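User: Here's a chain of 175 residues. Predict its fold as tokens.
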Amino acid sequence: MDPIIRGSPRPPLVLRPLAFTAEEIREVVALYTSNPAYWRVAGEYDPDDIQAARVEGDLRGEAGTEGGEVLLARDGGGRLAGIVCLLDRHPKDGLPWIGLLMVDGRSRRSGLGRRLAGLLEERFRDEGRSGVRLAVLENNPDALAFWGSLGWREIDRRQDLAHDRPCVVMHKDLT
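Assistant: Prediction complete.
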């Protein structure tokens, strides 16, 4: 069963696993391209030259990690609205982690990110999880403000494992 947020006037938002079709990868590349400011801060991709093969490889790595999951968020019309990378259980704390939550750049500040985060929190709450974590790059004040506005709190500062960048670890209680 697909989780759906219902309500008027907002269209439904549906999460489904990335199937790695060529069309889906093209859609994800377009979504990534719509967020150049994030990629300039993160440094993982050149925002002016995001290559489909590299995106696919990186996402296959995320999905292939034990407990890893890559989900596409689609609106009621089937348009790709966002992408989420999740880790079911972090090896050090046993909690689920959100590795990436990105919405189409043209939808920023529309409430879509808030809805998507809420959908993930609801999913983990329904699974009986007590909390969820994520890491935000220290040099991304917009993301820190976004997550803080949703009730997430800072619990640590450390380097990320993949790229050795300074991060703020944030936590949200789900109980």
